[in-house]
Design brief:
Its EC number is 2.4.-.-. The chain is an alpha/beta fold. The chain folds into two domains: 211 residues, Spore Coat Polysaccharide Biosynthesis Protein SpsA, Chain A (Alpha-Beta Complex); 95 residues, no CATH class. The protein contains twelve helices and nine strands. Strands 1, 2, 3, 4, 5, 6, 7, 8 and 9 form a nine-stranded mixed sheet that branches.
């Protein structure tokens, strides 16, 4: 028995999700870990989301509704972090939902392993809850260092290690980190910053987060802005990795960014954004080419500099894994 169970703050950013919000909140109220603070941040929703939040708050005092002008996902998450009183912090997107045992399992894994973060796998599902087959790279319970987690960001299916919501964070990890306001792909800018602070990260193999696939969602809309901001986030990660001598991550992040750049097309405004991120990439490539070793990785980034078209063609020819 726990002498005194710590409070876990779960932050739910809300925007225009009245159709899905009840299922999301019901999944939190059904958690086996009862010591929850559920901070629901209405980011200027034009629908009835605020009314739903207030109704749930009347039913359960653990729900704390907050309302603000629309500022985007990062602004809503940051507002939740500022309001949080818990020793541990988690995030749940308002059109997704979680298994009843998720936060208890993550908390206990973190405490048992002396970890500052716990991460689980997640399942892709349709809006009506039908599973969508995916193979997760998270296949066993294990404990990794923060550096090892950063290296996972350079591996296959790295998005399982990038996302902010399939995990539980020790509160102190937010002392110097906030999500970048106004950016898409906000997790690309922050995942490495959290891992760098961790001595240990507990991995739980079970998929306890249900990631609902919505048509038209950020993750499914291949816009130029999405590609450009994704590239910019990866290049910031490459810069951080170079500074801290995690060179495999620096090369992988740079190549991920270059892949976004070569497949992005747009009008004059988009072309200006592309030029800026291309200049950012050129500066990173200059530094990468001076790193000792990594001959194969250097060839890849040098090919981009020689001909983005050839680089794009090479990406298209890669075998599907």
């Amino acid at each position: 028995m726990d002498a005194k169970k710590p409070l876990i703050s779960v932050i739910v950013p809300v925007y225009n999700v009245e159709k899905y919000l009840p299922k999301c909140l019901d999944s939190l109220l059904a958690q086996t870990w009862q010591e929850l603070e559920i901070i629901v941040v209405d980011d200027g929703s034009p629908d009835n989301s605020w009314d739903i939040m207030q109704e749930y708050a009347r039913r359960d005092s653990r729900i704390r509704p907050i309302r603000q002008k629309n500022g985007g996902l990062s602004a809503a998450r940051n507002a939740g972090v500022e309001a949080a009183r818990g020793e541990w912090i988690g995030f749940l997107d308002s059109d997704d939902y979680v298994a009843p045992e998720m936060y208890e399992r993550l908390y206990r894994a973190a405490v048992e392993q002396g970890a500052q973060m716990a991460v689980c796998s997640f399942a892709y599902v349709t809006p009506d809850g039908r599973p969508i087959p995916r193979t997760s790279p998270i296949t066993k319970n294990e404990v990794l260092s923060g550096i090892q987690m950063m290296e996972r960001l350079a591996g296959p299916q790295n998005w399982y290690y990038v996302t902010a919501w399939n995990r539980l964070y020790q509160r102190r990890l937010f002392d110097a980190v906030r999500f970048p306001v106004g950016k898409l792909h906000e997790d690309e800018y922050t995942a490495h910053l959290f891992y760098w602070q961790c001595e240990r990260v507990a991995i739980v193999k079970e998929a306890m987060y249900y990631y609902v696939q919505q048509d038209g969602s950020i993750m499914h809309t291949e816009s130029v802005r999405k590609r450009v901001e994704g590239a910019a986030g990866m290049l910031e990660r490459a810069d951080f990795a170079l500074e801290h001598e995690v060179c495999s991550l620096a090369f992988a992040s740079c190549n991920g960014a270059l892949g976004c750049i070569v497949f992005a097309k747009g009008g004059s405004e988009e072309r200006q954004a592309l030029r800026q991120v291309r200049e950012q990439a050129d500066r990173i490539i200059d530094r990468l080419l001076r790193v000792p070793g990594y001959r194969t990785e250097k060839v890849k980034v040098a090919l981009f500099r020689l001909s983005p078209g050839l680089y794009r063609a090479a990406l298209k020819m890669r075998p599907v894994r």
